[in-house]
Amino acid sequence: MDIELSRLAYDYLQNFPVDDEVREEALQQTVEYCVDRFPTLPRDEITMMVVRAWNWHVDRHNAQKDVDLSRRALLRKLLSHLTQRERQVIELRYGLVSNQIQTLEEISKVLNVSREYVRMIEERALRKLKPFLDE
């Protein structure tokens, strides 16, 4: 039953951002939610499990943030091997900055060059990056 309660609390807490300002409200709402589903368990025990679940939620969030920072650092390092124009094409083409993928046509308008030239720049940039990605 402890595992079921922990999982229920953890899943419910996913609805809340990891933020000290909402922590108390998140814990209180989650305790109430769990008490409704496990009315025979002592409230103190449920509260303890919910606090543990909150800590797991925070730890997982922080670990994901660390991974995201590492990925961004790795991406910056990879892109540093490209010329400014190559980097710009790759960033636009794959949505690395704006999370919006652009077509060759759209990039050609931004750079004021032909679509074919953008394709060539992209190809050259990917060739430069390939040795680093094969490691």
UniProtKB/TrEMBL annotation:
Transmembrane segments: none annotated. GO terms for biological process: DNA-templated transcription initiation. It comes from the Bacteria. GO terms for molecular function: DNA-binding transcription factor activity. Pfam families: Sigma70_r4. SUPFAM superfamilies: Sigma3 and sigma4 domains of RNA polymerase sigma factors. Residues 78-130 form the RNA polymerase sigma-70 region domain. This is RNA polymerase sigma-70 region 4 domain-containing protein.
